[in-house]
Write a structure and sequence with these properties.
By secondary structure, the protein is of the alpha+beta class. It contains three helices and two strands. InterPro entries: DUF5949 (IPR045993).
């Protein structure tokens, strides 16, 4: 998908957590999210990411949090 650009601005609490831990744990789902959510609405996202089928088929990545941009 050429020229695709997607950005997400995390809540300040998440940026602080990455700063304290020194890393961010990312999950890239291999299956589509059946419904979207409004920014900041963590309920639907939590339900999707806690689904065992979604996490089992997803890529899991740990990235160092050396410099954060907000």
């Amino acid at each position: 998908m050429q020229h695709l650009k997607a950005q997400f601005v995390p809540p300040e609490s998440r940026l602080e957590a990455v700063g304290e831990l020194g890393y961010a744990y990312l999950i890239f789902a291999a299956r589509p999210w059946p419904q979207g959510a409004e920014p900041g609405d963590a309920g639907p996202l939590a339900a999707f990411t806690s689904d065992e089928d979604a996490t089992a088929s997803a890529a899991h990545v740990v990235l160092p949090g050396r410099s954060l941009r907000s």
